[in-house]
Design goal:
The protein is α+β, with helices and mostly antiparallel strands. The protein is built from three helices and six strands; from the N terminus they run αβββαβαββ.
């Protein structure tokens, strides 16, 4: 486990990296911190970036927080940053995430077979993207 000083240093380093944009997700009614949504590998020449999201506690999953955060970040990416394509990879067995990405308009591009070894098993990744060209 990391202490708050280590986490603060890590987060500040992330904020200073121009190839990344990270935003904290919080519940506006309770001010509870829920997770993180990020653009990574931002490529301003080719106008694309990778997107990722983490909602830390299961109690806050499947309640619309992820969808709202992703919609906001996609708006920033396409409208404020003028990016054209946003891509991601998700665990093939994470049906909740895959359904969310589908609802947001991401299209499946392919499967990266047995890409991650987790809890004693290999898991494939689904590659998806959304474009505004």
């Amino acid at each position: 486990m990391y202490d708050i000083d280590q986490q603060t240093k890590w987060f500040n380093k992330q904020l200073a990296d121009p190839s990344k944009k990270k935003y904290i997700i919080k519940d506006n009614t309770t001010a509870t911190l829920l997770g993180l949504v990020s653009l990574m590998k931002i490529d301003l020449i080719n106008k694309n970036a990778e997107i990722g999201i983490t909602i830390g506690e299961e109690d806050f999953q499947k309640k619309g927080f992820a969808k709202k955060a992703m919609e906001k970040l996609l708006d920033i990416a396409f409208n404020d940053m003028a990016l054209k394509t946003i891509y991601l990879s998700a665990f093939e067995n994470n049906t909740a995430a895959l359904n969310l990405f589908d609802q947001l308009g991401f299209k499946k591009e392919g499967i990266l077979k047995n890409r991650v070894f987790k809890k004693g098993n290999f898991i494939s990744l689904v590659s998806m993207s959304i474009s505004k060209i």
